[in-house]
Design goal:
TIM Barrel; alpha/beta; two-stranded antiparallel ribbon; 8-stranded parallel β-barrel; 11 strands; single chain; globular; 8 helices; about 230 residues
Length: about 230
């Protein structure tokens, strides 16, 4: 079973930060998951939500910020003494690239809020030959993933879904389905496997949860805990 470091080692460092990914690598991670947004100046940032409200206490949208603006908003940090900030994708990639097996890049582009994001992401990742064939693009927005497929016929794609319908990942030419552990069923796993699709499950943090999804036949998990 594949273990993805979900937003880095995010139960001991602030999620989706350089510090979280560095600690995950130190602990032996070779598979990672992160989220990307497009800033106002066309630069890619690694963050989960569309705004900084939950992470920095300021209701400002990433779409309205530049790369330089990120340093104005230290993130809530219960783990270490120093300030941490939303990183750029170009800052995270050198951390996860050594020894990388698989990098799941979740494209945060629901309803095309960032026109052109998919092309920018592909262009940035193509600058890293060491990542070739090791990036799995995922997202909840079907149209966003279809744009990825249109731009790159060889892209590896995983469909995030809350309402499982095997026809959708198959239409995308996806290799995997990503689903919350609470929605996972043995039947769903069987249908995916019968159609050549892997099943990756989020967010699985306890031994009991790991045992359950393994018993159901999942191929991998996203986990905040790397120990």
């Amino acid at each position: 079973m594949i273990y993805f470091a979900h937003r880095g080692f995010s139960d001991q460092r602030v999620q989706n930060t350089c510090e979280a990914f560095a600690l995950a690598r130190e602990k032996g991670a070779t598979c990672y998951e992160l989220d990307v947004h497009l800033l106002k100046d066309g630069v890619l940032a690694v963050h989960h939500d569309y705004s900084l409200l939950s992470t920095a206490g300021v209701d400002v949208k990433l779409a309205d910020l530049t790369a330089a603006d990120l340093k104005k908003y230290p993130l809530h940090n219960p783990f270490t003494a120093g300030p941490v900030y939303v990183p750029l994708l170009q800052e995270v990639l050198p951390i996860v690239a050594p020894g990388l097996q698989l990098l799941n890049v979740e494209i945060k582009n629901d309803n095309d809020v960032y026109p052109g994001l998919e092309k920018v992401v592909l262009t940035e990742l193509n600058k890293w030959p060491a990542l070739a064939g090791k990036v799995l693009f995922s997202g909840f927005d079907y149209n966003s993933l279809m744009r990825v497929r249109t731009l790159d016929k060889t892209a590896r794609i995983g469909l995030l879904t809350r309402n499982f319908d095997v026809s959708k990942p198959l239409a995308l030419g996806a290799e995997s389905v990503h689903i919350n552990q609470t929605r996972l069923t043995a039947q769903m796993v069987q249908v995916c496997h019968d159609n050549g699709l892997k099943v990756y499950v989020y967010t699985v943090n306890t031994p009991a949860q790991r045992a359950r999804v393994a018993e159901l036949g999942a191929d991998g998990i996203f986990t905040d805990s790397w120990e």
